[in-house]
Amino acid sequence: MRDNNSLSNLFLFLIAFLLVIGCDQTFEPLQENDKYHFSIFGYLDVSADTQWVRVSPARQQLNLPPEVPEMRVTLEHLESGETVVMNDSLFSRTSGFNYINFYTNMDIEPGETYKVKAERPDGRSSNVTISTPDNFPTPLFYIDTRGSIDGRIYQIIIRGANKITDVQTWWFVRVKSDEGVVEKKFIFSYANRLQWISAYGGAFLVEFIFEEEVAAVMNSSLIRLAPDAEVEILHRQVYVANGGPEWNTEIPSLDDLIYSQLVISNVQNGVGYMVGVYSKVIPYKTCRDNTGWIIACEEEEPFW
Length: 304
Fold this sequence. Notes:
The chain is mainly beta. It folds into two domains: 2-134 and 243-278, no CATH class; 140-241 and 281-295. It has three helices and 19 strands. Strands 1, 2, 3, 6, 7, 12, 13, 16 and 17 form a nine-stranded mixed β-sheet that branches. A hairpin with a 5-residue loop joins strand 4 (72-77) and strand 5. The radius of gyration is 21 Å and the shape is globular.
């Protein structure tokens, strides 16, 4: 099991979502309302050892004060009735934006149903019920060493998944310069490149050019603004996540923060969106059996 770090970047979604909802006359964030009590946003990942959910009470402004309001958030496994009270953690961005993540190390199982509930001291509450997807075969990673005019073509081949929420490659880089040592994770998302192919018994395929990723890393401001920099590639990985039945295919990807044009919610008596996912992380390389046939590499933990 592993931590999933994606949620740390999703606070921008919440801002955009509340701004859009604020334009809907049925919900007036600047007035007291009896319909929307909480915003709940995030996902439950079968592969994560810690689950993170962003929760905030309905309020008169987007930003929270630097304190945790009195509220109780629970995660319930509906099949067994097991319920845990989630712990709260207040985060503050350098921009001054405050937000609250609730977390738990409760095991999340594939093909099961869970409810997240947020409750105020006066008993008013919001909740969302989601189901996790079943396991799916480990994706294949194929490096076409023959290349093309533009560079080497890499392929990510995904079988047995019908609601793919995101496909990413991760680069972990260390940069040494006169300013010191900086370590950074570069994320390249390819969910918008998914295409169905009949090969490999039927599968989704993502194709990209390796040299384009190299150029993006080397031309990043972190490296470009430090001409004396020494760049070390620490590790590279591939991330694939499949969604449960609640996944809305209009959502570009789990990490797509430009989502303000979609006004959707599956939270009862609240706003926000949650889904269940099953994610897999594999090495950024092609693995073969002793006959030379391409096989799935063993899954590995996120490098960070």
